[in-house]
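Give me the 3D structure for 4-hydroxy-tetrahydrodipicolinate synthase.
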Amino acid sequence: MTTRRPAPFGRALCAMITPFTESGALDVDGAQRLADRLVADGCDGLVLSGTTGESPTTSDEEKAQLVRAVREAVGGRAAIVAGVGTADTRHSVELALAAEKAGADGLLAVTPYYSRPPQDAVEAHFREIADSCGLPLALYDIPGRTGTRIEPATMIRLARHPRIVAVKDCAYDLLGTQKVLAETELAYYTGCDEYVLALYAIGGAGYVGTVANVVPSRFRAILDAFDAGNTDEAARLQRLTVPLTELMMASGLPGTVTAKALLGRLGLPSGPVRAPLRPAGPEVTDGLLAAYEALAGAD
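Predicted structure for 4-hydroxy-tetrahydrodipicolinate synthase (299 residues):
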């Protein structure tokens, strides 16, 4: 069996959507009900105000309010990781301090986007966030969205910081990931639902999943099977999730849009997306529901 490195926020994390009311306001009650369901169905942690949580279009106060509300709902049953990444280092530090005050257990910070800073500036950005408060920090490497990679050599240097403890890996560079795993104790969480088993099998800590908003127990089962030594079953369970994952994450629509569409059809807290995102149409939602039902009925 693979020796498991520490998983600071648990193994099975959901990149939780941010529910809104039909008028577009933050749905605090809905967020609490969804968070409670996710934890009851196997999530060790919840990542709030990330990509799936529509962080670019929620206010600073809404982000803090969301942390407070979810903390009240889940208590100590799950870790709460607050997304604080922005294109502005100073703003990210302000969000980190606010998240700590609101009761978060950890922080998630994406590489600064649009300005495309060089690697020394990327490193300085993350160090400043990590130095700003007492919470552990996960680095969010998603160059397809930000335009800037956190290069493996930069990761290795940042791993020496005592509060930089984890990575949410959306770089699609398994070789680079293995280089960092070999040189550091960073806990690697895949942010790509199709890589849950692949990364876990080479020493990753777990996942931060978007599809987990609708089928949290299905992804948790992959890790449980692997930990029990049943690798064939883990592989089978991963393959079962592929049709729904493909529709939700590779159909040309953002995962936020597809997750909210499916949650809404299931009668679970979701609400509209905020512009510039637009809701999924009925045909897309019908397809998502069919894939969900097929997965729910699989054994």
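The chain has a mean pLDDT of 97. Let me know if you want a second pass.
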